[in-house]
Automatic annotation (TrEMBL):
GO terms for cellular component: cytoplasm. Belongs to the folylpolyglutamate synthase family. The keyword Ligase applies. GO terms for molecular function: ATP binding; dihydrofolate synthase activity; tetrahydrofolylpolyglutamate synthase activity. SUPFAM superfamilies: MurD-like peptide ligases, catalytic domain. Transmembrane segments: none annotated. This is Bifunctional protein folC. It comes from Nitrincola nitratireducens. The lineage of its organism: Bacteria, Pseudomonadati, Pseudomonadota, Gammaproteobacteria, Oceanospirillales. Keywords: ATP-binding, Ligase, Nucleotide-binding. PANTHER family: DIHYDROFOLATE SYNTHETASE-RELATED, FOLYLPOLYGLUTAMATE SYNTHASE-RELATED.
């Protein structure tokens, strides 16, 4: 287990910490989404949230939806997993991967709210 989170950590250290928090089993259901949203004070009724699942085509479908909604003038945020080269690829805002500093800032805020791993996916979407 990595030492207690520090305000001086860079992205590489945060990613090491996240990996150490990963649960042994993955909950494939979506039941936790409302619980996490409530903890983060995110009102899912005020946002359009699409969950893309299945075996094949998730990345393509997500990018297609991103393109369509962006072309319609909406600001679109996406979270995908896993990443190919860099963790930042998972989170896109307005068509661009988030910066290292933005990612670190979000992770710091999440850590202050409690155990980080269950909060990570939903918060990155918002």
């Amino acid at each position: 287990m990595v030492e207690v989170a520090s305000s001086t950590w860079g992205l590489a250290r945060w990613l090491e910490y996240i990996e150490s928090c990963h649960p042994g089993e993955i909950d494939l259901g979506l039941d936790r989404v409302s619980q996490v949203a409530a903890k983060l004070e995110i009102n899912l009724n005020k946002s359009f949230v699409f969950t893309v699942g299945g075996t094949n085509g998730k990345g393509t479908t997500t990018r297609l939806l991103e393109s369509v909604f962006s072309a319609a003038g909406l600001v679109v945020a996406t979270y995908t997993s896993p990443h190919f080269l860099r963790y930042n690829e998972r989170v896109r805002l307005a068509g661009k991967d988030i910066s290292d500093q933005t990612c670190v800032n979000v992770l710091r805020k999440l850590k202050r709210r409690g155990p980080i791993y269950p909060l990570l996916t939903l918060s990155m979407e918002h």
